[in-house]
């Protein structure tokens, strides 16, 4: 375990010393997960879509077995995600120009204005062609029952990594962790490999703060630029 690992739960946990160390960080990195987007009204993994829990929809079995059925459900899932908007946690990370490594597929960090974002599980607002690499807006799935690549006509893959598929950008994420002088772990328990290894990639002494709940309340306080 990293020596300067601190868990923050309440506003009162945020001391003046913590605020100062955060304010002076030159290379702040945040690893974010589902808890970061909780206040944005997204569907949860246990929620049912067409009688199937959302988690099963992401496990890839439906996509592999039946593209038409997959995209029927995908349209419903996508419409739910398209209604979600960034909450104060996303906005605070964007304003502080934090480097963001996210496990979320909702695209809300980019919409909030974060420019340096690694979406390691992809983005549900995109579709990808496995054959030629083309990236399309997911709107194409709203126009066609089974969206195909406009270039090579291959059936498009959702812009997210389904279970069993390789996560993306992990070498750059590891590079960012190694350069970080502050790491925030927000709304995630980091159970999943390989993100679970990222805190270990930080240099010795790098302060690590874990915020599991109330990110939308704590991050705006933690990342404020000016302190009174
Ligand atoms: Zn293609």
Q: How would you summarize the topology of this molecule?
A:
Layout (H helix, E strand, L loop, with lengths): L4 E3 L8 H8 L4 E5 L1 H4 L10 E2 L2 E2 H4 L3 H5 L1 H16 L5 H8 L3 E4 L5 H5 L4 E3 L2 E7 L6 E3 L2 H4 L13 E4 L9 H10 L2 E5 L21 E4 L3 H8 L6
The structure holds zinc ion.
Order of helices and strands: EHEHEEHHHHEHEEEHEHEEH
> Helical region count?
10
Head-to-tail CA distance between termini: 34 Å
Structural class based on helices, strands and sheet pairing: alpha/beta
Q: Which cofactor or ligand species appear? A: zinc ion
CATH class of the largest domain: Alpha Beta
Describe what this molecule looks like in 3D.
It is a single chain. This protein is of the alpha/beta class and 228 residues long. It has 2 domains: 137 residues, TPP-binding domain (Rossmann fold, 3-Layer(aba) Sandwich); 80 residues, 2-Layer Sandwich (SIR2/SIRT2 'Small Domain'). Helices cover 32% and strands 18% of the residues. The chain has 10 helices and 11 strands. The strands form 3 sheets. A 6-stranded parallel sheet has the order 1-11-10-2-5-6, sandwiched between helices. Strand 7 and strand 8 form a beta hairpin. Helix 6 runs parallel beside helix 10. The longest helix is centred in the N-terminal third of the chain and has 16 residues. The site of zinc ion has 8 residues, from loops.
């Amino acid at each position: 375990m990293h020596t300067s690992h601190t868990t923050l739960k309440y506003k009162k946990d945020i001391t003046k010393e913590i605020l100062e160390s955060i304010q002076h960080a030159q290379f702040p990195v945040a690893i974010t997960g589902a808890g970061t987007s909780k206040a944005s009204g997204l569907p949860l993994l246990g929620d049912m879509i067409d009688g199937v829990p959302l988690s099963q929809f992401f496990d890839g079995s439906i996509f592999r077995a039946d593209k038409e059925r997959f995209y029927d459900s995908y349209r419903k899932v996508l419409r739910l995600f398209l209604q979600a908007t960034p909450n104060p946690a996303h906005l605070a990370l964007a304003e502080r120009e934090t480097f963001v490594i996210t496990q979320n597929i909702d695209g809300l960090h980019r919409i909030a204005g974060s420019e340096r974002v690694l979406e390691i599980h992809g983005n549900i607002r995109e579709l990808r062609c496995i054959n030629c690499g083309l990236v399309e807006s997911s709107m194409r799935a709203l126009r066609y029952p089974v969206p195909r690549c406009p270039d090579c006509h291959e059936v498009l893959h959702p812009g997210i990594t389904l279970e069993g598929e390789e996560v993306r950008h992990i070498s750059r994420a590891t590079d960012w962790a190694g350069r970080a002088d502050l790491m925030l772990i927000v709304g995630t328990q980091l159970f999943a490999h390989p993100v679970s290894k990222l805190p270990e990639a930080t240099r010795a002494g790098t302060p690590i703060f874990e915020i599991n709940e109330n990110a939308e309340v704590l991050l705006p306080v933690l990342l404020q630029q000016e302190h009174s």
